[in-house]
Amino acid sequence: MNALETIGETESAYQHVASLIEGSERLGRGYWMVNGLLPVANLYRLEGDWERCRAASDRALQISPLDPPHIAARVLLEHETGDIGQGEFYLAQLIEAREATPAVPTWGHGYPAMVLPLVARITGDYDYLKDARLAAETVLSSSAVSPHLAWWARVGLALIASMRGDAIAAAEQYHWLLPTSGATTRAIAVDRLLGLLSQTMGHLDDAIAHFEQALTFCRTAGYRPELAWTCQDYATTLIQCNQSEDRAAAESLLEEATAIASELGMAPLEVQLSETGVLLDSFRISAEGNPDGLSQRELEVLRLVARGKTNQEIGDELFITYRTAANHVSNILAKTGVGNRTEAATYTYRHRLV
Rounded to 5 degrees, what angle do the CA atoms 319, 330, 312 make? Predict the structure, then answer.
């Protein structure tokens, strides 16, 4: 069932649910029951069936309240559906379990390595990334680590590279993850992640190709929450491309993601989609005469970059979120063709925009 979930063979995976639960119950309520419920709960979450996912999760946590795999799955469930309070409750348990685990490659570190960056992407709170990096580095500290566990650690490091805009780290993780294209880690489609890494490296054509593969994978598998997130990231990339022919495609992707998020009650994603919609509006109304098609809002952000402001400081000054500020900076770098914030500052003075 784990294998079928990973490659998106949902219909075949469901054929094993009844046998898996029956066998687990026959073996007893301990180890086998808890582990038997894990792929079942994950399958429900991948499909956006929050009610059945929560029921399976409740049953497992009742038997083993401190089981890291089920705590990790519950962390994602609560954050995806916008219950941040409950999500933080389980997140604290997951971090506590990691800290109590010896510093050797185990799932006690593997789950936080992947889940914490995903939570950061959902909430915009990057405070979790340091803990996630430590967990990933612990997993990869041994040459004898299992390939599956190393895969999850690489996924975590890839997410961190994407969120930090670290092109060098993104290239390293892209190399490792590319052979697993066409699969999911139960939490994110690998091709969506490869798209984010390509975007971070500035390879926008590759990013688009990977996002297209992720869309096909998620639609075929019926993994609708991941489909909605892919639409969101894909639309953001198209906006960054700054091509007029991409506007309609970006708008269509945002409409599809909004419909799914609304139906499934994915409040955090709805917030991000709203912010991306603002970027799209800015894309539509780029002020005529501004260099490289920069919008008025992008000019405001660029001036603050030239003053040495961080993304958080830009967000605070313009009353926008950290994520929106970071997206504006990415779009500015893409439109102006400069490689970093220092070059962006030079661009600002060269064009007398200050």
Answer: 35
With CA atoms as reference, report the closest residue to 240 among 148, 312, 165.
165
- Decide if 279 contacts 236 (C-beta within 8 A): yes
Contact 322, 126 (CB under 8 A): yes
Query: What percentage of the chain has pLDDT greater than the value 90?
Result: 58
- Nearest CA to 210 out of 223, 198, 226 is that of 198
Block residue for tokens 């971090």: 95
> How confident is the model over 159-205, as pLDDT tens digits?
999 998 899 999 999 999 999 999 999 889 999 999 999 999 989 89
Instruction: Let me know: does 333 contact 344? Beta carbons within 8 Å.
Output: yes
80-139: pLDDT as tens digits: 999 999 999 999 999 998 888 888 898 889 999 999 999 999 998 888 899 999 999 999
